[in-house]
Amino acid sequence: MSDFQLFIDGQFCEAASGETFSTLDPSTGEPIGTAAKAGAEDAARAIDAARAAFDDGRWSQRRGSDRAKVLAAVAKGLKDRAVELAALETRDAGSTVAKAKGVDVGNTILWFKTMAELAAQIDQPETLPLSVFPTPSANVLRHEPVGVVGAIVPWNFPLQMAAWKISAALAAGCTIVLKSAPETPCTATKLAEILAEAGVPDGVVNIISGSGPGTGEELVTNPGVDKVSFTGSTDVGRQIMAAASPTLKKVTLELGGKNAQVVLDDADLELAIDGAAYGAFFHSGQQCTAGSRLLLPDALHDEFVERLLERLSVIRVGPAADKASTMGPLVSQQQLDTVLGYIELGQKEGATLRAGGQRLTEGGLDAGYFVAPTVFTDVTPDMTIAQEEIFGPVLSVLRYDDEDDAVRIANGTPYGLAAGVWGSPARALRVAERLQAGTVWVNEYNLLNPRYPFGGFKQSGLGREHGWAGLLEYTETKHLHLAADASRASKRWFDMTVPRR
Ligand code: NAD
Fold it and tell me: Are residues 226 and 299 in the same domain?
């Protein structure tokens, strides 16, 4: 029996094929356990279960306030098992102890609590102003669940990403099939246990692990799915959008980023230096919002870089489970190869390597996938390391002349997920307003809130997650038009059936 089974129609089970795969601890390269490897057949069975659960109304027809109670019970179940979940995320995803506790598990609890609060309000109809056109009427909007959701998540924040999608789908009244990333299947399975214990009815949430092509594809193409909620790379996002189009599914895409941190010449330098390092190296840069491009004014450039390089000495790269580590490993050998490939390319294209640039193996790190915090200067906007998402601890420093130049460089990639501006508030806000990004932090970086919308401009995505905007992505808006005068005499149906008086 595998250690991390599929969860379909309220039952834990193996894949129909009996296939399993090993999931590894990226700090040590050692196996954590085996996970059931779902194929298209398992995905289809999970979709059928979610379809039946949606259509018979066992969840969708419940009042939002009832659903809220179950979501609050999930939050409590997560809190009760927080230590176990954090330890598992540390082993499976290479989350440092602090990240696993505060972000992976802490935010997951917060997201379920917040979605419980929003679920309690979702049934309240939205009354529009009285209208006299085309005839006097009262008008009301209702937000009804969109149906069955196919959700696909990446490996960088496995529990949190699953929580973002499941909590919103449940709050809206949808049913869902979620596929975890093949690198990190563990905590989603534990979440399934917590959901069942909290009273989520059978079939409402189904969780499978398996590869993208095949298993994930089934979620995107099966006619039983009404909406696809995908978080992952822009390349796969494109494929998902195309594959979902024959059945015209609603699609939300949370994709990659090449996020700029713009430092203005009136910035608090101590704050901006810490912020730049945190933005670039948190979770080894394996975050869609990583501030992987640092834009410095000519006048500040040299001093800022020197002080930033000194600040790197406080970053402790080491095994994720060691409390002293502030930066853990990359998730896999494949990700390690990708990141080292970009570092080589940066040097070939003429950027100057000022820090890091190599795999770390000393001190018992040789079996894990560790890369030193890496800083390139003399990066020009057209270089690959200034244009493509690396998803590793690699910071590209670019110079700018004036505010217009900074805005032009910051907006000069196909991405538009997030950005940061460091400077005096009024000036920083002026620059922030000109940046093409779904979230811009001013004198802050990388903070998400379950009540504020998050998502990408340009090729960083479609739609939003979190808050009302995110919740409404899991609904269909129904307009109810109530005629103020229901008499035949009042109707003016273009003289077709009612003779002109
Ligand atoms: P990925 O796109 O390779 O995979 C993401 C998920 O999609 C995985 O579960 C994978 O199995 C699945 N998949 C792959 N091919 C598929 C296909 N053809 N059909 C259906 N499913 C398929 O991304 P990754 O390497 O796991 O994660 C890193 C990426 O995720 C980065 O680009 C990062 O920016 C992005 N990301 C975005 C956000 C956001 O909110 N915008 C958050 C986290 C990560």
Answer: no
Nearest CA among 154, 143, 144 for reference residue 229: 154
The answer to whether 98 touches 444, Cβ cutoff 8 Å, is no
232 CA to centre of ligand 1 in angstroms: 2
Q: What is the CATH number of the domain that holds 176?
A: 3.40.605.10
The domain in which residue 291 lies consists of 260-442
In angstroms, rounded to a whole number, what is the distance separating the alpha carbons of residues 154 and 399?
Answer: 33
Return the pLDDT at 493: 78
Residue 499, pLDDT score: 58
Which pTM value belongs to this model? 0.97
CB of 350 within 8 A of CB of 378?
Answer: yes
Pocket residue to mutate for ligand 1, from 99, 152, 339, 473, most atoms within 8 A of Cβ: 152
Q: What is the pLDDT of residue 134?
A: 82
If asked whether residues 250 and 301 sit together in one domain, one would say no
Number of domains in the chain: 2
Single out the residue in 412, 442, 472 at which a domain terminates: 442
State in Å, rounded, how far the first CA of the chain is from the last one: 78
Ligand 1 — pocket residues by CB below 6 A?
Answer: 152-156, 179, 181-182, 211-213, 216-217, 220, 231-233, 236, 239-240, 254-257, 288, 389, 391, 417, 461
Reduced 3-state DSSP string for 7-29: EECCEEECCCCCCEEEEECCCCC
Instruction: Output the pLDDT for position 242.
Output: 98
* Helices of type H across 358-445: 384-387, 403-410, 425-434
Q: Are residues 207 and 270 in the same domain?
A: no
Tell me the two tokens of residue 124. Answer: 């309240």
144 shares its domain with 234: yes
Phi first, then psi: what are they for 160, rounded to 5°?
-65, -40
- Report how far ligand 1's centroid is from the alpha carbon of 154 (Å): 4
What residues of the chain score a pLDDT lower than 70?
494-501
Active-site residue 254, yes or no?
yes
Q: What is the DSSP pairing of strand 175-180 with strand 439-442?
A: unpaired
Neighbours of 286 (CB within 10 A): 24
Q: 372 with 470, same domain?
A: no
Q: Is 13 a catalytic residue?
A: no
Bridge partners of 482, per DSSP, are 138
Give 448-467 pLDDT, tens digit per residue. Answer: 999 999 999 999 999 999 99
Residue 282 lies in a domain: yes
Residue 291 falls inside a structural domain:
yes
